[in-house]
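Lab notebook page, bench 4
Experiment: in silico fold of construct C2
Operator: M.H.
Input chain length: 389 residues
Purpose: comparison with the prior construct
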Amino acid sequence: MTVQSLVRALGTPVQDASEETFELFAQDLPSQNLGFIDPRAPTLELAIAGRDLTIHQSPSILSSNRAGGTTGAVVWKIAPLFAAWLASTTTTTTTTTTTSPSGTTKTTASTTKRATTKSTRSNTPNNKNNVTSNSYNSDVTNPLFTHSLLTPSSHILELGAGISALPALLLAPHVTRYVLTDQPYVARLVELNLAENLPSSSSSSVSAAGGKNVAKGKGGVKSAKSVGAGVMGGGLRERVVFSPLDWETDAVTPSLTHSPGVSSFDVVVACDCVYNDALVAPFVDTCAAACRLRTVENSAAADSSVDGGDGGEGKRIQEPCVCLVAQQLRDPDVFEAWLERFGTVFDVWRVPREMVGRELGGEAGFVVHLGVLKGEVNLDEEDGEGEGV
């Protein structure tokens, strides 16, 4: 299984940004408001894929006038859905959200073998508990596992991760390295959420990434503090790293992998990062720069093989990097601007409902697109090998 087999299974790529936008927004989309789970609760109790998680967030930062944005300070509705799907190696994902007057919100996303559907709401003046419950089910497996693009040796980069670290918490058992990136203001809560929810083989919860410089901004090179950048193979905690990365000022470099001998990523993910016209260009440019690390690494491997380097054996050519972008459908103009620019550097596919599940399908108000840098896959290949998903 390969990237080629995956995109073949995905079908025809998106041909026109305006048509894709019209098709998605012409649906009868549910009201999601802004899309927060609970912007007032300092703590969320989440159960995802059989794991109970405690996630700390910051309503005060969200409501502040901090320059540079505050949206990463709380958890958005799409986050547990995307995390459960991304880490799904089995068949059914169920998500439940419960809010109580005490300020505690509990969201459950679990995986079972049997799909059922249940949706209930109880939020009346006579309801002392003021409980709102919603259950979501989808009998799908992440096709990146099916097509062997997520493996125990995979390196994942998340852009605009925010404070929750949910995809990292769920994927850590399945990959070698998960790198979370966002602006520095989320680092403290990322550290807290990782420390509380992932076992560590060491007593220290934070370490510097070997003193490496991972981002070069307008003001020069800065050394990034990293969460969980310990020795690999100890505990799940050591597999997850946080590095500050500003799309407008920082450069993506191979040292961002925080893994000796590894200079690129297998998968780049972003969840609910597209909500502002001004961020479209820097976001897409960062996605492209991150994926090009693999292109550069493969080019060097090919040159080494031709030149007889590495004892004449050369380095292995790896699969192209895949970029996954999940988002809530809010503003058609912003969405179309993103897709138009994204499509100039990536071949793009909408992940269909049968692969992404009902709760992340377009009719649910969410959508997932997959991009591969242009020229990395053969769009004309009609060979039938690897059709299964």
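Observations: The first strand starts at residue 43 and ends at 48. The chain is about 25% helix and 25% strand.
Next step: discuss at group meeting.
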